[in-house]
Design goal:
The structure is a homodimer. Chain A is an alpha/beta fold and about 230 residues long. Helices cover about 40% and strands about 20% of the residues of chain A. Chain A folds into two domains: about 120 residues, 3-Layer(aba) Sandwich (Rossmann fold), CATH 3.40.50; about 100 residues, Winged helix-like DNA-binding domain superfamily/Winged helix DNA-binding domain (Arc Repressor Mutant, subunit A), CATH 1.10.10.10. The first copy, chain A, binds a DNA duplex (30 and 30 nucleotides) through helix 6 and helix 8.
DNA sequence: AATAAATGTGAAAAATATGTAACAAATCAA
DNA sequence: TTGATTTGTTACATATTTTTCACATTTATT
């Protein structure tokens, strides 16, 4: 007897999808399916699966983009199943946030074994941080799945960097984030740690999200350290 | 660039071991090595590594037995690197407790990518477990994760040096810290051990954390020696 | 009690960090 | 291409932090 884990299977090729689902069914796993990227993201939001099995070759969007999208709000384990066997493809997917990478043709036994590994890890971690796809704090709202931010219901027009910056602050509400932590996470690993740029982006972001709002600023400066988004009431 | 993670490399074949260690060194990972199973188990016990890279083909014992042995007391991530490419070998190792399985010949880039995956997971887990990183002593409270200090629930505004100083005292509650120990830890190694500055900072810190509080001061002076934060009730 | 040594205190100077505006460079869509 | 948008850079006024220093106070020693 198995478990209550829910597995999201993302695969556009029907025969392969059937192979996977039949295997899962035979091993008493519960699952839902999606045949393209946007359906996959919607299912990930609405069903909150415990594991995602993801084919990279989807008709509507690149699989790596699906990984990044899901990773923008969720830490759900993602096991990639792909026909692309190039090392560079593997690295790209793993660095984007995938947890494992199987190349087609794959053995169902190996897939099941790697599923068991992931499930074993899940049960260890068990009840982990709540990963909601919508963030709300005061008059500010972020819909991670849609990639949009709102202030008092009105959509904000944010540039990509501004949005990343906002998400990073939001994911760490109440914590002081150091300059280098922010630049590393917004601009990537290799960056000259330029605080000047961060300052001007922070300024424009503040202008946009503190538009005519409350008395207390939502983003505090901690001189010599970094910035912090305050938890609002 | 990197990290404080310690990696145990278990591989009896010297050329392969060198390839791995050279790669790790080039990427600024710290590591220790073992050339057989019993050494590997001893190293895993004594050094408590963060990750184990394990070759299955060891001279003295079967690699799967090493996995099981380590798993009997530790959940350290184990990445298997093996010449055995049979599905049954993979399944056996994964079910024995391995977290990942690479077959030789392997790409060092893929190995590094899978290491990053594992490290990423480690840091997530450690962040969660470190959520209990809150110090409390009387009316004083420090939230290390948030980087903030509170007095009777009210947040204190501390400069970087004041905060460092407070954390240092807090981490050593009850102990007398010498002037030179404090200056070394707050200002860094190369410093002329200026006690005058320390005195000034200690004064402002005291003003802030002993605001209208109790009869007994929380920070004691030990003349000719240093300072001590008292354990309060 | 007198003296010397160590510590506390307040205020200024020095050093450093920040917010902002203006502008240059890069990117992107038509 | 153009024109619009986004991103990166610089200069500078302002604000904050850190250091220095003179002097008062406390503590230890004789």
């Amino acid at each position: 007897m198995n478990n209550n884990y829910n597995i999201l299977v993302v695969e556009d090729d029907a025969p392969v999808r059937n192979l996977i689902t039949t295997t899962l069914k035979a091993n008493e796993y519960k699952f839902i399916t999606a045949a393209n990227g946007s359906d996959a993201i919607m299912s990930a939001v609405s069903h909150n699966p415990d594991i995602v099995l993801l084919d990279l070759g989807l008709p509507d969007m690149d699989g790596v983009d699906v990984i990044e999208k899901i990773r923008s709000w969720s830490n759900v384990p993602i096991i990639v199943i792909s026909a692309r066997s190039e090392i560079s493809d593997k690295i790209e997917a793993l660095d984007a946030g995938a947890d494992d990478y199987l190349t087609k043709p794959f053995s169902v036994e190996e897939l099941l074994a790697r599923l068991r590994v992931t499930l074993r890890r899940l049960s260890v971690v068990s009840e982990q941080s709540s990963s909601a796809s919508v963030f709300e704090n005061g008059s500010l709202k972020i819909d991670y799945a849609a990639g949009c931010a709102y202030l008092n219901g009105d959509e904000l027009h944010l540039t990509p960097i501004e949005y990343k910056l906002l998400c990073l602050m939001a994911k760490n509400v109440g914590k002081v984030l150091t300059h280098s932590y922010i630049t590393r996470n917004v601009w990537g690993t290799s960056w000259n740690n330029d605080v000047a740029s961060l300052r001007v982006f922070m300024a424009t972001l503040r202008k946009k999200i503190e538009k005519a709002s409350d008395t207390t600023p939502i983003i505090q400066t901690h001189i010599g350290v970094g910035y912090r988004m305050m938890k609002m009431e």
